[in-house]
Automatic annotation (TrEMBL), chain A:
The lineage of its organism: Eukaryota, Metazoa, Ecdysozoa, Arthropoda, Hexapoda. One of its GO terms (cellular component) is mitochondrial ribosome. It comes from Leptidea sinapis. PANTHER family: CHCHD1, SMALL RIBOSOMAL SUBUNIT PROTEIN MS37. GO terms for biological process: mitochondrial translation. This is CHCH domain-containing protein. InterPro entries: Cys_alpha_HP_mot_SF, Ribosomal_mS37_met. GO terms for molecular function: RNA binding.
From TrEMBL, chain B:
It comes from Leptidea sinapis. Belongs to the universal ribosomal protein uS7 family. Keywords: Ribonucleoprotein, Ribosomal protein. It comes from the Eukaryota. This is Small ribosomal subunit protein uS7 domain-containing protein. One of its GO terms (cellular component) is ribonucleoprotein complex.
Length: 122, 232
């Protein structure tokens, strides 16, 4: 037998009720930007040495993929990548510590936080 | 070996009845014979000259240095040859790997001397490289790829995207390809014989390995339209 007693019914207060318009606004967080940024969007996307690679491909096609005929293009491509990896290494190391690199536009979240600490949002 | 000397007895001393906390509090279970801050020695004259040139010598004056290993300080030690031996090695049998490479070097030397004596004019003789180590260096240099294909997923489709390759990976691929080309042989042909042929071919910019490198470059060229999908 199933009991359907009124005192066992769900409490009126606990049952989920629909919201009546206008829904009252509740301020759960202060209405201001945070003083810091999170590190979620830190994956940098960059395709490097595209120009050098295009030149290399053109030379390869001309010389039937014989590397000895494209020494100039090969060295310029490799130097480009070497330079990039060195630059990226410095940026990574500085970014880990949060040290600001002068003249660098792309910053890690730690560097940005360092900058925001110096110049906080009003 | 020198870095993995356990001081297990240190622990054993600490395990005495009623002294459990001292064991549990120890955050390191073993100590190294040489701590991490000991630097590898720089004993090659070229490396030292590079340090002096870059004004980095003063950095190393106060740093404690590990003792050099006996094999690395030998006059005949070649880092590339050592690397190739380590790639040939199976199950840690370095002795066999070294003997195989030495036998291959002997085969190269014999073949090159034969060519040297068959050559008629002094100009032709001067062109023939007799040092097998130099031939190996040249072979690896010629087998190194300059580009690589990376699988990158965009919109549910995996694109093979060409891009530059690091020096380290390119060296690894060159040695791997040389060894893979060597193992593709008849059962009656032995490793040293086939390896000698492979490195002589690669040093001459011909053969299976150089073709494999060029094929990779061709594939990269064919997929160059996807190059802008690359990200680092």
């Amino acid at each position: 037998m199933r009991l359907n007693l009124p005192f066992l019914a769900p409490n009126r207060k606990n049952a989920r009720r629909y919201q009546r318009e206008p829904v009252p606004f509740q301020m759960l967080l202060p209405l201001a930007l945070k003083k810091t940024v999170s590190g979620k969007g830190d994956i940098t996307k960059e395709a490097v040495c595209m120009q050098e690679m295009a030149v290399l491909f053109a030379c390869f096609k001309k010389s039937e993929f014989d590397q000895t005929q494209c020494l100039k293009e090969v060295t310029s491509f490799q130097n480009c990548y070497k330079e990039y990896s060195q630059r990226a290494k410095v940026q990574r190391e500085m970014g880990k510590k949060g040290i600001l690199v002068p003249g660098e536009n792309k910053m890690t979240h730690k560097q940005l936080n360092q900058l925001l600490k110096g110049f906080p949002a009003l | 070996m020198r870095n993995s000397l356990y001081v297990f007895h240190k622990l054993c001393v600490n395990i005495t009845p009623g002294r459990w906390p001292s064991l549990l509090l120890q955050n390191r279970l073993y100590a190294k014979y040489f701590p991490d801050f000991f630097q590898n020695p720089i004993f090659r004259k070229e490396d030292q000259a590079k340090l002096i040139e870059n004004n980095e010598l003063s950095k190393y004056t106060t740093v404690p240095v590990l003792p050099p290993s006996a094999s690395e300080t030998s006059m005949h030690f070649d880092p590339l040859v050592n690397k190739v031996i380590n790639h040939i090695m199976k199950d840690g049998n370095k002795k066999l790997a070294r003997s195989l490479l030495e036998k291959a070097f002997e085969n190269v030397k014999r073949k090159q001397i034969e060519r040297y004596h068959l050559a008629k004019t002094p100009e032709q003789k001067a062109k023939i490289e007799l040092d097998p180590k130099n031939i190996l260096h040249k072979a690896v240099e010629n087998s190194k790829p300059m580009l690589q294909l990376l699988p990158i997923k965009r919109g549910g489709i995996t694109y093979q995207v060409p891009g530059p390759i690091t020096e380290h990976r390119s060296l690894f691929l060159a040695i791997k390809w040389l060894l893979e080309a060597t193992t593709e042989k008849e059962r009656t042909v032995h490793f040293p014989e086939q390896f000698a042929w492979e490195i002589m071919d690669a040093a001459n910019n011909t053969g299976k390995v150089v073709k494999r490198k060029q094929d990779l470059h061709r594939l990269c060229e064919a997929n160059r339209a996807y190059a802008h999908y690359r990200w680092q």
